[in-house]
Amino acid sequence: MSDTPADPMVGRLIDGRYQVRSRIARGGMATVYLATDLRLERRVAIKIMHGHLADDNTFKARFVQEARSAARLAHPNVVNVYDQGQDADMAYLVMEYLPGITLRDLLKDYGRLTSEQTMDILEAVLSGLAAAHKAGIVHRDLKPENVLLADDGRIKIGDFGLARAVNNNTATGQALLGTIAYLSPELVTRGIADARSDIYALGIMTYEMLTGEQPYVGEAPMQIAYQHANDTVPMPSVRVPTIPHELDELVLWATARDPEQRPRDARVMLDQLLDLDTLVRPAPAASGLASTMVMPGGLTTAVAEADTQILGAAPLIPAGGVNDTPAEAPANSTVLTENARKRKHRGYLLFALVLILAALAGGTGWYFGSGPGSDVPVPSLTSSSPENATSQLTALGLEVALGTEFSGTIPAGLVSSTDPDSGTRVDKGSTVTLLVSQGPQPITLPVLAGLSSDAAAAAVTDLSAGIGATDSIFDDTVESGLVISASRESDGGDVSQGGDYFQGMNVNLVVSLGPVPDVSGETVDDATAILSDKGLLATSGEELYSDSVDAGDVIRAAPVNEGPVRVGDTYSLTISRGPEPVVIPDVVGLPWNEGKQALTDLGFKLSYNLGADAIAALLNVATTDPVAGTAVEKGSTITLKPTNPFG
Question: Which Gene Ontology BP annotations are present (predicted)?
Answer without folding.
Answer: negative regulation of fatty acid biosynthetic process
